[in-house]
Specification:
heterodimer; A: alpha/beta; D-Maltodextrin-Binding Protein, domain 2; 2 domains; four-stranded mixed beta sheet; 21 helices; B: alpha+beta; MetI-like fold; Immunoglobulin-like; five-stranded antiparallel beta sheet; 50% helix; 12% strand
């Protein structure tokens, strides 16, 4: 029987071990400066992970606190939540999902920040960034990295040939699209096969037509998706996105086009001229088509609609302390200073919402402009689909994504589409 | 049995039993158990999930598509395999040929799906399938010079082309036909600044019609319907003058500056027509992954993936058929088709059966191919039961109960095929 038991024991051990992952690797010895464990999605060999490790190395150099860094990949929410449940959280977690911060606060796992962090945030960041990390009046984290999804990229050559100046208002954008169409160009590539690109479009339009207050209400489902403001925003959005004269392949073609294809359609095969999306587009256009910022590719901020103030839709990474280890709070304090991210900003591929960070540090015009947009935004809203439960905001073919695809298939059917989205929102929020 | 022997047997069996119970039996039982519970596996709901699943449009489409898969996929793959096996028998480089056809089976199915998704792209410039079809398409209906253009001046399309109404007075008449929606590089090289002849204060003269067909667009500011500096004429456009009875009276062809001149016409009301062939669009390609076509397109990709497998199994079956029977049939005067139909196929029946049943099971549990091949916007329409099970259980709201019920339903569908397979297996074992 011994053998059987031994084998059974090992089998069970293997299963349990796989489920728990490494849980006893760090024993924090508070000798010297101490040691903290920091987790983020990026692996230590990922370019962003490498850059973040440099930030952490600088932190160690200044404070003497050692950092044990773990890049957890996309499974971070799952692993983190398991470790919190198991009573062994890392000292600091860097989260990309604001919903996860709320979740950690609700479970009592996130630690409120020190007064030094509060002061640092007030001195270096626009209030919106503290608001984003505040739950029930208490500040829990530091947004030290942010992205901008309110950018519109275009083929410089075509704009120059036709003497088009980048539009600053929605009406100008429509006029530009008409000029492009008159001259035989397809004005827009829309990646409708991926639902999230459509939700980015919608959010950018909605925050401008309905305003930030309504945007937040819609995010929290305080107003239904059948609200007139949503209907109106879709009607505005349809003027460009659902206009077969402007969109590559018409609406059906858009629904077959994925994100990367929408970029190559503009910068590689020149089938269309303009594409809306996150800052990543510049990198993808360079990789896929060798497009250089300035000469081949340029961008303008998502235009204002009916005089709406400059608004940025985006995402960000927030550092949160999950233990009372003093090193954890020291890292958060460090991250509020502009000095912490200077090298990262200079290395490229990074933008900070820190308004005291010298903009001239950014290596290229694109990241400088993205950062400028972030720092100067009068309105900054988080990508709505990242804020709602992922069942509703992050699932292919369902919720917001699927709903907007149905809308693009048949834009006259707004009422039915919104009723469907509202039904799914209710189901998801009830969870 | 002695205690020691029993222990030894147990020690040898234990790993297999642990794996079997841990990875097959327990999850299966747990799935059945979960299927009677609600979304989070907490409240008992009885058979509700089994009733509810048929209420969802998505699931109904999935069932319909799985049915299509089961009918079409095993049949076409087996036929393809059989034809290829029999034909490749005669090929000198048989092994290389078969190896090549088998290669798709060595690619991960998800990757195959992605490969086909790219091959199916609608734009013939990108999708390989449409690029191939584009060759005959562009041969038989070449795109016109004005493809994609629309008029910027008063004109309307009908079945035969673009129609412009005009009047010819005693001093002749003029007509302007502005075109937008064509790129500058799409008009012929010979084009020059559009003619201002129609704006000239001098009338063209009795019995004369002059007109300009031009590209009514230029960089910067631009007024519609007016020939401006920087706007080009469109050369070589055929303009037909027709009367009220649709009789063609005369034909003009535009010069490099877009102007044309037709003489010898009586005063009166006429229409000018630019024939439809000038506007014919280049072939846009078939949207293979459109909602209505996606399942069919996926099945074609499936044939590509599994055809090699069918070929290989059938070919090995073919190799074991005694040659004498075929020879005897030939000596008796049977032609090749009769030999194939009456001798080869019946002898191959058991092998064909194995292939067919294996493929039927594959069709029922089709999953990764669909994920790879169907664009996100078409996943609902290309859905199959196995995919719907995963989508219900693990994506969106993650309804574990309903997902488990779908899994059990799928299992029940596969069960008869499995039983059939096992029974045939036994019969064959006994024959030996």
């Amino acid at each position: 029987m011994k053998v059987v038991r031994l084998i059974a024991f090992f089998a069970v051990f293997a299963l349990v071990g796989a489920a728990c992952g490494d849980d006893d690797t760090d024993t924090t010895a508070p000798t010297g400066g101490g040691e903290i464990e920091v987790v983020w999605i990026r692996g230590a060999d990922h370019p962003e992970g490498i850059a973040f490790l440099e930030v952490l190395a600088q932190f160690t150099a200044e404070t003497g606190i050692q950092v044990n860094y773990q890049g957890l990949g996309d499974d971070l929410p799952t692993i983190l939540s398991t470790r919190v449940q198991g009573g062994d959280p890392p000292d600091v977690a860097v989260l990309a999902q604001p919903g996860l911060l709320k979740d950690l606060v609700a479970r009592g796992a996130a630690k409120p920040v020190s007064q030094t962090v509060i002061d640092g945030m007030a001195a270096n960041f626009a209030p919106v960034w503290s608001d984003l990390a505040t739950v029930d009046g208490t500040l829990y984290g530091v947004y030290f990295k942010a992205g901008n999804k309110s950018l519109v990229f275009y083929d410089v050559q075509v704009f120059d040939d036709l003497a088009i100046t980048p539009p600053t208002t929605w009406d100008e954008w429509i006029a530009v699209s008409q000029t492009l169409a008159d001259n035989g160009y397809t004005a827009l590539a829309v990646a409708g096969a991926d639902g999230w690109t459509l939700s980015d479009w919608f959010e950018n339009v909605y925050v401008r037509t309905a305003g930030q207050e309504k945007y937040v209400q819609l995010t929290n489902h305080e107003i239904p998706w059948t609200d007139q403001s949503v209907v109106d925003a879709l009607a505005v959005m349809a003027e460009l996105v659902a206009n077969p004269d402007f969109v590559l392949g018409g609406r059906d073609g858009a629904l077959q086009t994925n994100f990367v294809a929408s970029i190559t359609a503009v910068f590689a095969t020149a089938d269309a001229v303009v594409v809306e999306g996150p800052g990543d587009i510049a990198g993808i256009a360079k990789e896929e088509a060798g497009a250089e910022v300035g000469t081949d590719l340029d961008f303008f901020p998502f235009p204002s609609i009916d005089g709406s103030p400059p608004a940025v839709l985006g995402g960000g990474d927030v550092a949160v302390a999950l233990t009372d280890n003093p090193g954890a709070m020291a890292l958060l304090e460090f991250l509020t200073t502009p000095a912490a991210v200077e090298t990262w900003a200079a290395a490229g591929g990074f933008t900070s919402p820190n308004q005291n960070l010298d903009l001239s540090l950014y290596p290229d015009e694109l990241s400088r402009a993205v950062a400028e947009g972030l720092v100067n935004a009068e309105v900054f809203v988080f990508d709505l689909s990242d804020l709602v439960p992922s069942a509703f905001g992050g699932t292919a073919g369902a919720g917001i994504w699927g709903g907007l695809q149905n809308w693009l298939q048949n834009p006259d059917n707004v009422a039915a589409v919104l009723a469907q989205i509202e039904a799914e929102a209710e189901a998801a929020m009830a969870e | 049995m002695k205690r020691g022997k029993w222990l030894l047997a147990a020690a040898f069996l234990a790993p297999a039993i642990v794996v079997l119970v841990g990875l097959v039996v327990w999850p299966a039982l747990r799935t059945i158990f979960d299927s009677f519970y609600g979304p989070a596996g907490k409240e008992f709901v009885g058979l509700d999930n089994y009733r509810d699943m048929f209420r969802f449009e998505r699931m109904r489409i999935a069932i319909r598509n799985s049915f299509i898969w089961v009918i079409a996929f095993p049949f076409f793959v087996t036929i393809t395999g059989l034809i290829l096996a029999v034909l490749s028998e005669r090929v000198r480089w048989r092994t290389a040929f078969r190896l090549m056809l088998f290669m798709p089976a060595a690619i991960a199915i998800l990757s195959s799906g992605i490969i086909w998704r790219i091959m199916y792209e609608a734009n013939p410039e990108r999708g390989a399938v449409n690029a191939l079809l584009n060759i005959p398409a562009s041969m038989f209906s070449p795109p016109g010079d004005l493809a994609g253009a629309t008029p910027s001046t008063d004109a309307a399309f009908d079945r035969d082309g673009l129609i412009v109404s005009l009047d010819v007075g005693r001093d002749g008449g003029t007509v302007l036909v502005g075109m937008i929606g064509i790129r500058e590089d799409e008009i012929p090289e010979s084009a020059v600044q559009a003619s201002s002849i129609a704006d000239s204060p001098e009338p063209p003269g009795a019995g004369t019609l002059v007109g300009v067909v031009w590209r009514d667009a230029r960089p910067g500011e631009n007024e519609r319907g007016v020939v401006e500096a920087g706007e080009f004429g469109i050369p070589d456009v055929v303009v037909r003058l027709i009367d009220a009875q649709d009789q063609e009276l005369a034909t003009g062809v535009t010069e490099p500056d877009g102007s044309f001149r037709i003489t010898g016409i009586e005063p009166g009301a006429y229409r000018a027509r630019i024939p439809a062939s000038e506007f014919r669009e280049p072939w846009g390609g078939i949207t293979w992954l459109a909602p209505e076509l996606a399942t069919m397109s996926a099945i074609i990709a499936g044939i590509w993936i599994w055809g090699g497998f069918a070929l290989l199994v059938i070919a090995s079956g073919l190799a074991s058929i005694p040659r004498e029977l075929q020879e005897a049939a030939r000596v008796d005067g049977a032609n090749e088709w009769q030999v194939f139909r009456r001798v080869t196929v019946p002898l191959l029946a058991p092998v064909l059966g194995v292939v067919f049943v294996t493929l039927t099971i594959n069709a029922l549990k089709m999953f990764d191919l669909i994920i790879g091949i169907a664009p996100g916007s078409v996943q609902d329409e290309a859905n199959v039961i196995a995919l719907e099970m995963w989508r219900t259980a693990f994506t969106g709201l993650g309804n574990r109960g309903l997902g488990s019920a779908i899994a059990v339903f799928l299992f029940l569908l596969i069960l008869p095929v499995m039983i059939f397979n096992i029974r045939r297996f036994r019969i064959e074992e006994e024959r030996r």
